[in-house]
Amino acid sequence: MARKTGSHADTTRPRVRAAALQLIAQHGFAAVSMRQIAAKVGVQAGALYNYTPDKQTLLFDLLHSHMDELLTARAVAVREGPACQQLEGFIRFHIRWHLPRGDQVFVSYMELRNLTPENFAQIEQLRRTYEDELEAILRLGVAQGVFVVADTKITTLALIAMLTGMNNWYRESGRLPLALIEEIYVDLARRAVGVASD
Amino acid sequence: MARKTGSHADTTRPRVRAAALQLIAQHGFAAVSMRQIAAKVGVQAGALYNYTPDKQTLLFDLLHSHMDELLTARAVAVREGPACQQLEGFIRFHIRWHLPRGDQVFVSYMELRNLTPENFAQIEQLRRTYEDELEAILRLGVAQGVFVVADTKITTLALIAMLTGMNNWYRESGRLPLALIEEIYVDLARRAVGVASD
DNA sequence: TTTTCAAATGAACAATTGTTCAGTTAAATG
DNA sequence: CATTTAACTGAACAATTGTTCATTTGAAAA
After folding, report:
1. In Å, how far are A70, A93, A111, A131 from A78, measured between CA atoms?
2. What number is the average pLDDT over the span A157-175?
3. Phi then psi dihedrals of residue A193, to 5 deg
4. How does pLDDT run across B156-189, given as a tens digit for each residue?
5. B129's torsion region: left (phi>0), alpha (psi -120 to 50) or beta?
6. What is the pLDDT of residues B27-86, one digit of tens each?
7. Can you give the pTM of this predicted structure?
8. Helices B178-192 and B83-98 meet at what angle, rounded to 10?
9. SS3 of B168, please?
10. At what angle do helices B9-27 and B102-110 cross, to 10 degrees?
11. How far is CA B164 from the centre of its chain?
């Protein structure tokens, strides 16, 4: 019993990543063994090493492609118009991109400490790039005189924390429809930057 | 070589908790071994079992007393006056209590998934009790007609996420003094509930 | 069909894990 | 002082860890 019927790298690789992501989100990186991941894929532990040189790199790849996908998606989003409209666009983009990716987001925030220093620095820089997207909007609004903000950096971090916190409680089966929640957060963001809500 | 000179439970117990807290904050619960904790205390692994029946209970005790201390501190805080003043009081209380407790806060949010279901439910209830403190203030303000909030529960969660997120970036050596940051957050909270800032 | 090669097995490895416990030592009690 | 008891040691345990590798299998290319 060796090579499985109908198996090749193009199908197994994403399955390894998906299994790792789900298990790490559930139990934490250190608590998940390569054998557990392998079992979820339906393979022996040794086979995983066809797809990653080691466990650490597997984690890094997950976090890195998460940030990569985020920044790529953001890059193609519309970023025009007045500051207030751009702010609204960012809020909606953030919510719509993050909420359906619970496991990825969770792991990306929780497992940073399990990265080697070099790997951590790399992810951290990507994260800062994303934060800078929002801060640039706040700066623009301040420059245009439509936002009133004491400190753009602090406000940026506060807004992002507010948004990212959604992943901790939002459930599709929850009390309120997503569209309404989205409106509430757009409104909160507008207020945070000193714009009167409509 | 057995009992250490000058050692007794009253001194060792808190040292075990402190060592566990610090190591878990740094590496994560699953990644920290009982031997590492013991080494930090200056003791053999077996000795830890004078202070906890097992590793899981050690974690639970840390999280439980964290929430206990939080709720106790909150209970003795001033909770009078108009809604707007109570809101300000809550924000300042939250910041002043949480910021100096980086490790505790970090562990309390990160290691929930490593609790058994019953232990998790217990901690979760305490957390909800704390959140209800804030929501009650929002409801009061809405009832008094001084707050304009679409949904008190959502706004509560958004505010708490915003506040708790501070622990991820605040450093004493940072760019802004804590007093100023506190003002900014009070202002953000006021705006979030629809009160014009002064 | 035969050949080639990618994909997986399964056993093995040294190290480490949480936990137990009989024995040993220092502090507290009389 | 002598006795008791609380605190700790150190070895042991079965299980599990990440990783390696010779071997085997199925799929693709000739």
Report:
1. 14, 10, 31, 17
2. 97
3. -95, 10
4. 999 999 999 999 999 999 999 999 999 999 999 9
5. alpha
6. 999 999 999 999 999 999 999 999 999 999 999 999 999 999 999 999 999 888 999 999
7. 0.94
8. 140
9. helix
10. 60
11. 8
Rounded Cα distance, A94 and B137, in Å? 29
Q: What is the chain B residue with the closest CA to A169?
A: B157
Query: A112 is written with which tokens?
Result: 């940073």
Q: Please tell me the distance from the alpha carbon of residue A39 to that of residue B93, in angstroms, as a whole number.
A: 47
Please compute the mean of the pLDDT values over residues A148-165 and round it to a whole number.
98
CA distance linking residue A82 with residue A140, whole number of Å: 9
State whether A155 and B192 contact (CB < 8 Å).
no
Cβ neighbors of B2 (< 8 A, separation 6 or more) are none
| End-to-end Cα, chain A, rounded Å | 66
Nearest-by-CA chain B residue for A178: B154
With distances taken from each CA to the C1' atom of nucleotide C23, the closest residue turns out to be B2
Contacts of B180 (CB under 8 A, 6+ apart): none
Contacts for A49 with CB less than 8 Å, ≥ 6 apart:
none
Residue with tokens 């807290």: B21
CB–CB of B166/B98 below 8 Å? yes
Identify protein residues whose C-beta is within 7 angstroms of any atom in strand C: A 1-4, 7-10, 12, 38, 42-47, 50; B 1-8, 32-36, 45-46, 49, 53-56
Residues A106 and A22: beta-carbon distance below 8 Å: no
A4: three-class secondary structure by DSSP: coil
Question: Residue B165 phi/psi, 5° resolution?
Answer: -60, -25
The tokens for A147 are: 């936002």
Residue B133 corresponds to which amino acid?
E
